């Protein structure tokens, strides 16, 4: 043991510690300074644990407490409070640099260490100072701007009051700070791992090292005797169905008979500390009988192979889509491109691990309520899944602040095991899995293989599109059928294509399971279509921008589902992009005259993304409060997009109230009704639409009885609470033979321009600038909108160039190739606002938009730079070099 004394946030502390104690534990566990976050497995990869020691930004997970005698430590809690924030915290809030907020405390402290030395840093200085801090949400642009703004505040050139929008100048279309931004900036927003749970046991799971094996026996005897162990549970201890049923009941909380992918959970240990639980989990002895492994659809579809799921064949779903005669169209085309494309299995990579807390809440001797606090984006649906799986009805789900999700939380992850353990051990349970475990517990973006043929007539008009695609579903189905359907619903992208012929296949394999990931299906098929469009334009000698423009769908023409579009404001975006495109082409041509090994290229991609799918429904309630304020009740998850801003600004605008008079109740199943997931970019359109309807009903009632207050409403015999709904009446499945049928009610559109440099000797690709032109209808909050576009572009480039999840190999943020601030690039956004006919105040959604055209635009830019057409994502240097050598013959 050793005694050390040092200051934390100005207060001198004495600690008697073990020599290997690390600062993150002292701060988080002992002092409850939970603004310090942990994302990576203490490998120094994420920077979320950054604090300042003696003026330098350090990662507290790598800092030994024994070395801190006499030091001065500053955590986010020592900087400012929501009522009295530091200027850097103000700058991050006002710059719109905070989305989920999980990276924010570490970012702010890294920025402070820089700004304390230099209040006027260059962009390169900022990138260098923040190089160890990861962010998945923002694309880093607004973080860099926040540091620059903080510098101006610190230099006295500007005050926060001069930057903060004045509500007197309007509510809608103004970048008012998010209601939750300041508490995130001050480290005061509690994520699930930050919640103090008295008497909680800590959970750790035993995961399968095999991709496919029978479980012969599980010996827990050694583990049960280990220090601190409360108990070990296996499948027999889960009292419900032990199946998490998103659509089909195929995914166990704990595997009973067999494991189906590397990471499948087979047992769990509850212990007094996480370290004890992890140690005991390693002592659980599972005997497996390995089975043949099928990692690809080809292997899983081969003759005579094992069936992975006992109740469904490996080919678990097919859906064609046929409109017109594509074969005839292709045969009559003046030019046809025929090729194939593949995309990788990818991780959505939210920064926060899959943390969850569960406990039994007892009141007056009633049946206890099982309370689950987690990262859900669909609390009512997930609660019903949990009720069946763990066999317990009396339940409440509460959404904690969550550190991003990007589709990963479409399905239940750690909540199943946490809830089952709380019931089994009758103890409060905290499950704070490692990053590696979090990767095992969660879905991934599906890998697609696509064979395409695209034709055009002599004038360059598209004639027909044929696509045959196979989707690696992985070990469990989750919402795989939804992903395939979404790919078909948006198959023709931005274009009018007279004839369509598609066949889709979803195949069980022994890889990690696939589900939603930003865009959820369309990013994969749009990569194929937009690449083929560029290849066809080149074959026909037509400029890619003109080729796109002449083929864009016009209102009144059908999408691939046969449904006719009402609004399609994409040509305006193409025209807005035209001068940027020509500038970029000129710049690239000049650059390439230098005749060096680095070549510059320019690529375009378009995307038209559906919002408010067939039959989609949402409800929101509003209540006029006694003080004249308004409370909004709705299960509107906000894992970082800014849904709190959207609800607040719409409600304040329609009720003509100050924004601080709008109260939100959104995070608990007890006080809200089901509203669907915060997915598919649907929240603004669907929940915002339901809010508008609810407020309309309230105002109608107030007008009818001439009431201005809730008291007057009540006196006139009217309720003070009203339920609003929004529904896409075009409902039902696609026709199983033709894939024709209902479609999205609204669309968001984008044109993306990418400028890259390709090193023709190494194959390295560097994105130097991306410009996006987007029309998402009326803009509620411009900075929030830009934040979604910028984050999507950054994620799209990661998908295009680097990121991949490989079973058994991807273990952390380095092996995943998480995009860093050093790889960030210049971004420009062009916004057009065509009010949507059925959108709330004319708005539609936007969260996934720029994810859809980014990868093909990057691939088109690489091809434009050096002729290398990469048809298999990600375009790593070896693939670029291989494509280049193919192109050179
Ligand atoms: S937890 Fe310290 S760098 Fe990730
Ligand atoms: S705001 Fe940076 S990770 Fe979410």
TL;DR of this structure?
With 889 residues, this protein is α+β, with helices and mostly antiparallel strands. The chain has 5 domains: 2-35 and 51-72, Beta-grasp domain (Ubiquitin-like (UB roll), Roll); 87-190, [2Fe-2S]-binding domain (DNA polymerase, domain 1), CATH 1.10.150; 201-291 and 349-441, Aldehyde Oxidoreductase, domain 3, CATH 3.90.1170; 444-612 and 736-887, Aldehyde oxidase/xanthine dehydrogenase, molybdopterin binding domain (Aldehyde Oxidoreductase, domain 4, 2-Layer Sandwich); 617-727, Aldehyde Oxidoreductase, domain 4 (2-Layer Sandwich).
Q: Tags for this entry?
A:
889 residues; alpha+beta; Ubiquitin-like (UB roll); DNA polymerase, domain 1; Aldehyde Oxidoreductase, domain 3; 5 domains; five-stranded mixed beta sheet; 32 strands; globular; binds FE2/S2 (inorganic) cluster
Describe the 3D structure.
By secondary structure, the chain is of the alpha+beta class. It folds into 5 domains: 56 residues, Ubiquitin-like (UB roll); 104 residues, [2Fe-2S]-binding domain (DNA polymerase, domain 1, Orthogonal Bundle); 184 residues, Aldehyde Oxidoreductase, domain 3; 321 residues, 2-Layer Sandwich (Aldehyde Oxidoreductase, domain 4); 111 residues, Aldehyde Oxidoreductase, domain 4. 30% of the residues lie in helices and 23% in strands. It contains 25 helices and 32 strands. Strands 8-12-6-19-16-17-18 form a 7-stranded mixed β-sheet. A 5-stranded mixed β-sheet has the order 2-1-5-3-4, covered by helices on one side. It has a 5-stranded mixed β-sheet with strand order 14-23-22-21-15. Helix 15 links the parallel strand 22 and strand 23. Helix 3 crosses helix 5 and helix 22 packs across helix 24. The structure holds FE2/S2 (inorganic) cluster (2 copies). One FE2/S2 (inorganic) cluster binds next to loops. The site of one FE2/S2 (inorganic) cluster has 14 residues, from loops.
